[in-house]
# Entry
Amino acid sequence: MAEIRIKNLHKEFGVGADKVVALEDVNLEITGHSFVSIVGPSGCGKSTLLNILTGIETPTNGTVEITSDGHVAAPGYVFQAARLLPWRTVTDNLMFVQDDRSDDTKERCQRYLEMVQLGDKGDKFPGELSGGMQQRVGIARAFSIEPDVLFMDEPFSHLDAITARALRRELHHMWDETKKMVVFVTHDVGEAVELSNRILVFAKGGRLEDDIQIDLPFPRDPADDEVAVAKAHVLRKFEELDLLAS
Amino acid sequence: MTVTDTRPSAGTGSQPVPSPAHRLIGLPAKIAKSPNFARILFPIALFAVWELSLIAVEEIWPFAVDVLPTPSEVGGFMWDEFITDTLARKNLYETFFISLRRLLSGFLIAMVLGTALGLAMGLSRATNAFCHDWTMAILAMPALAWALFNSIIFGFDDRGPILTVILAGIPFVIVNVREGVRNTPRELFDMARSFKVPQSKVIRHVLVPSLMPFMFAAARYCFSIGWKGLVIAEVFGGQDGAGWTIKFWYDAHRAHGVVGYAAFFVIFAILFERLVFEPISRRAFRWRPQISTEVVEEAFGEHHEHYGEEETARH
Ligand SMILES: Nc1ncnc2c1ncn2[C@@H]1O[C@H](COP(=O)(O)OP(=O)(O)OP(=O)(O)O)[C@@H](O)[C@H]1O
Ligand SMILES: [Mg+2]
# Structure
């Protein structure tokens, strides 16, 4: 089972007049079979946090630790933009992040392409796909390594409502089945409430403002009273933060 | 009025179907619009202007005929060369083989050295600061100057022309590769890092492909600039080769030989572009969305047709 421990995390970019504080003194522990959503206004450090957790950026101060049963956890990352290799086919993009080229691995890649409804697009180059399709290839790539922790940065924001709903269901299913951890960034409070059992609210300046548990049973119907109440609660937190900021 | 406005009228069939006679009248217009016709028209026009201007010059100054070659003289010369019937010491194929060997030697050395230097300059500020001014100086030097220096230093053997190719071509390789390194896609390296992809795989699948367009531009420049440098070097410091041979015809007062050989240079360069660079580039950049000039031409062609329809509709 995966564990994330963040202690006194501080991250700034640039120096002097250009200095930007992206994250300020974040302390956080995520354990077990969690589905954690991170919400907050644009520029509050959500992507930066995922970049630090996946080892792309290093903290200015503080420590992060991601382990799974005592060893370093393997992360899967769905980026805010798809980040595919334009000169490799869809299938080769998935193979690029695999440890081996065995038939099992190839089959697994194909299975995840089918999950995002792109089973017949394996031989295409990313430039031949629509933006939403490219985003789905990015999702299949992260799933295909069957990571200990799955990090997702607004993965469904470029998709049409129907595809997004199908993939949300797929994601929830995978999370439920594999008992893996998911850390999910979104702008959409409804989406966060529908999927997660914990919501972290970040404010401008990269402060962790609120940590909300949602212990409602799945699947959650947005029309359901309790779900609607939870959503209203999170939205109210948002408004309070907005008032504080202005 | 926009183009889209005319589309429905084209689809509803409100216009009369053109009769066969109409189509026949339309045929020359269609031929005139085809790109191949335009391509053929250019040399025809060129030869016509050439021949006519010779006639005009002859009217004014009769002796010029002996000096200025006519298209048929040049054509005859080129044909004789083509079937290896020549007064020069080596025939066309031997000559171009000698030059090609020098060109490729210089080209390969320039590509290897230039790539190494370009990588170093792209990766390290200090190296860039150290080499930048020298690169610009080599770039600014005309190939003629290199050709002269090298013939002074090396006399009449292969080394002078080859070094001239290297010096003429290498700045383009250095500058292109350096820009390529500076433009490597950071977000893809980050992606690879987050998925813990091993370094060797990252180099092969991310770094090298991202450099390819720049390497290709480098190769094309290096080849064509190197070729021009080589010809000049052979004029001054060669005993054979394409440059030496054009000088031979010049010394022999055969203007048609000079013009004919110059035409061979052009044909050689075009053949190389068509038979070597284009196929390789098509293979290497298969992944790029197809935006060719043909597509642009078609788009314009459609606009013209729509304007035509609009006019006939108004009549
Ligand atoms: N590489 C970088 N260099 C300099 N500043 C950066 C860099 N990356 C992020 N920042 C800054 O850090 C802050 C947080 O950025 P981040 O991308 O984490 O925001 P975000 O919460 O993901 O926003 P969004 O919802 O718009 O994606 C922003 O002010 C941004 O300008
Ligand atoms: Mg972001």
Q: What stands out?
A: The two ends of chain A are 41 Å apart (CA to CA). Residues 80-146 of chain A form one domain. Chain A touches chain B at residues 51, 54-56, 74-77, 79, 81, 83, 85-88, 96-97, 125-128, 141, 145 (CB under 8 Å). Chain A has a mean pLDDT of 91.
